[in-house]
Amino acid sequence: MDLGALSSGLLTGLREGVEAALIIAIICAYLAKTGNRREFPKVFAGAGLAIAASAILGLILYVQVGGLEEPYEQIFEAITLFAAAAVVTWMLFWMRRQARSVKGELQAAVDRALDQGSVLALAVLAFVAVIREGLETSLFLVGQANSADQNAIWILVGALIGLAIATVLGVGFYQGSRRINLATFFRWTGVGLIFIAAGLLSVGVHELIEIGAIPFGGQTLFDLSGVLPHSADGGNIVGQFLRAIFGYSSTPEVLTFAVWLTYVVVVLYLFLRPMKPTAPATVGAPA
Questions:
Q1: How many Cβ atoms from other residues are within 10 Å of residue 212's Cβ?
Q2: What is the pLDDT of residues 217-256, one digit of tens each?
Q3: Among 17, 145, 199, 237, fewest CB within 10 Å belongs to which?
Q4: Please, is 133 exposed, middle or buried when counting C-beta atoms within 10 Å of its C-beta (0-12, 13-18, 19+)?
């Protein structure tokens, strides 16, 4: 068992799964509050369809990458890794900005769906709400699996465990549990995903350097293979764990290390800095 790959997949599945579970919990709690529990099956059907579509897309992407020949495999793999890092970065900052207004927007959307009286309205609402999380998760997991090579199965196992935990937490959200501080949860899991995304970026750059698509920065910056090898051949579990979580390499190229370090420093600073308070609306003086 590759503990690093398992942990990486678990963090991704847990973080993305909690976001999707929170969305479904908000919708179902509002339906229950307004006396519309009978609409639950429509919500679950839409969410289930979104999860299935995301899983199929992820499987297609993973199989397509593995079926290509060099150098097209490396090029497509690099594109997938870059896209996964970009999507998760966008998701982190979108959630950071929109977290306070998501509940109200979802409840307003539920009201519109109920007013329309359509059988598919709520199913479509749940599908659209969950498909974004599902596509992000699939793309991110495909990127992690491509970078993990032979240990891709443990990425999937970890993701399934994370999604199972997220489902349990979703039930707690629906029942009104306050035991989990969501702000703290999203903050620290976000930090973990930033390091994972940085690793995906560096692996993607490595793939392009390897096939000569990037003609500079390919010199080895340092060599720690004798102390902390990243490959399974070295027999060092710590190195394998760091590679799966952070994209660690015992012999990094100058450019891959520079990309990794730049991404971590810049994105961590932007993600952790305090948000500016929203200016309250001004109220005119009475006549």
A1: 10
A2: 889 888 888 888 776 655 567 777 777 677 778 888 999 9
A3: 237
A4: buried
